[in-house]
Every structure is written in C-alpha cells, then in structure tokens.
Write a structure and sequence with these properties.
about 80 residues; mainly alpha; about 70% helix; 4 helices; DUF6952
C-alpha cells in the first residue's frame, strides 16, 4: 500500500470513477482510470482504500483524518 498513490486517486477522481475502477479490478478487468501499483493486487488495494477514504471525505471528514482511520483499520486487521 502506497499512500501517495491513494492520495492522488482521492484528489483526482470522483467516487463513481473510483468505484468503477475497484469493480473492474475485482473482476480482473482493466480499469478506465490509471491506478498505480506493482501488481493487480496492490492496485485493487489502492482502489479500495481510495473509495473508503473518498466516502469519508465527501461526508465531511478531512483527508488526513480519513487516511489515518483507514491505516489504523488496516493495522488492526493485520495484528
């Protein structure tokens, strides 16, 4: 997971574009937007994170707060 890629996605694409990209990747198709990552798994992770964060931002949360909440959630699921 690369934070700069997630930030770029949240800043440059709409929630609908991000959701469509996430769906395309999960169905092993090529998304219509460029999503950075070393492989399809990492790209899917970036798309999922961007959707989650974008939803929070559109609900009024600041980007940094939403990003921290997401990374905290990921850390909690790993440990």
């Amino acid at each position: 997971m690369k934070i700069p890629i997630i930030k770029k996605l949240v800043e440059n694409y709409s929630l609908q574009e991000l959701q469509a990209a996430e769906e395309a990747l999960s169905e092993e198709q090529t998304p219509t937007i460029e999503i950075g990552g070393d492989d399809e798994g990492e790209q899917l992770t970036h798309a999922f994170a961007a959707v989650w964060i974008k939803e929070k931002v559109e609900a009024g949360e600041k980007f940094k707060v939403a990003l921290r909440a997401y990374t905290s959630m990921v850390r909690g699921s790993i440990s």
